[in-house]
Write a structure and sequence with these properties.
With 154 residues, the chain is mainly β. It contains no helices and 13 strands.
């Protein structure tokens, strides 16, 4: 599903194309903890309170991951990741976000933040092309929780 975006009028009088939100079609994760299924991060609901039933959770796992597929290959403009807010905001600390095309890594972003943001907005340089997004925590036994993941592109 594609929403938003289209053509707009710029200050120079010319038209330019803006990126569109492109919805995922499926999601899965290493395992599911506490009822926090992977599909919760692609349900269109950015409610970041776990008890709003829209936040994912894995069990304690070595290198936990979450991955979602798009309906087609797109040119990525940005990825937005909404963090859990009611507690446990550290469950995203030091995440790696990877854009994949047919399971091959195309773009990797390692988050440098030592503080936990409510929303991470990752600009994708060069309009990398891909059809999947993977978010993972590297090293140690951890729990991964995500409130929502959105992709924008063409």
């Amino acid at each position: 599903m594609i929403s938003g975006g289209g053509y707009g009028h710029s200050s120079t009088g010319t038209y330019c194309f803006t990126s569109q939100k492109i919805s995922f079609i499926s999601a899965h994760q290493i395992n599911t903890g506490y009822g926090g299924s992977a599909s919760r991060a692609i349900d269109g609901n950015t409610n970041s309170n776990y008890f709003g039933y829209s936040v994912t959770s894995t069990n304690w796992s070595q290198n936990p991951w979450w991955e979602a597929s798009l309906p087609r290959v797109i040119k990525f403009d940005k990825v937005k990741i909404y963090n859990r807010s009611d507690c446990c905001r550290e469950r995203i600390e030091g995440f790696r976000m990877t854009i994949l095309k047919d399971d091959q890594s195309i773009f990797v972003y390692d988050d440098p933040n030592s503080s936990w943001l409510s929303v991470y907005e990752i600009d994708v340089p060069g309009l990398a092309e891909g059809n999947k997004v993977k978010i993972e925590l590297i090293g140690g036994s951890k729990i991964l929780s995500l409130a929502e993941v959105e992709t924008y592109g063409w």
